[in-house]
């Protein structure tokens, strides 16, 4: 019984390798991929090369045919898929929490102690279908988004490989209803969502910086009117500030600015221009981040 795979990102690449190892490339009817402008590395070429080596047809989503396959698996896919009898999606949250987009980013922002992956049947409304399998892993803070992705990628590979094996062997897949009373939604993100909210508390801003870094485009702010990307920061003990203006530099530690937040202080330890030029040590003490 053949499969079609709709794959993007590092997780999609891991799924492809796992499925080929478990059921063989001959069980894969085709792989459909797409570029992703929201990440610095989208694994499009890696998917294409792996398919070429294994002899699996690879298509870009712009010119992909409707697959002649009874089942399809989708990883990190953001578009409607039509014409497949049984569509299974792998979603990087512990559903029914964080239905929707960028769930790992929002989970890290909220300081969740566990993240995970859910395999489910696709329905007309995103991420509401019956659950096939779910795996989780504990995390500790601080943690970068790339580290979180590395923690869940093996879960993707294990779940997808197990599902592919069951399908090829003709075994029924389990399914269980989601608890709607526990559902939450994670909205889509765009370029404006990379802007640092300086009026938030310092702990949340640090989690934000860590959550939107590589492979995403990085936490951005205006420094004296020019765009800067903050890659690393640490919290500092708050002080009593008579006129609290979030975004102002209040101290300088070895050329590293300490910035006033809505509550708490944040010391910036690595900051660059969009082109990668280092912006530390800070050239002007009287600087403001907006």
Overview of this structure, please?
This protein is of the alpha/beta class and 290 residues long. The chain folds into two domains: 3-186, Formyl transferase, N-terminal domain (Rossmann fold); 191-272, Formyl transferase, C-terminal domain (Methionyl-tRNA Fmet Formyltransferase, Chain A, domain 2), CATH 3.10.25. It is 23% helix and 27% strand. It contains five helices and 14 strands. It has helices spanning 9-23, 44-54, 103-109, 145-168, 202-211; strands at 3-7, 28-33, 58-60, 71-75, 86-91, 99-100, 114-121, 131-138, 185-186, 219-223, 226-236, 249-253, 256-260, 265-272. It has a seven-stranded mixed beta sheet. Helix 1 (9-23) links the parallel strand 1 (3-7) and strand 2. Helix 1 runs parallel beside helix 2, helix 1 (9-23) runs parallel beside helix 4 and helix 3 (103-109) packs antiparallel against helix 5 (202-211). The chain is elongated, with a radius of gyration of 22 Å. The model has no long low-confidence stretch (mean pLDDT 95).
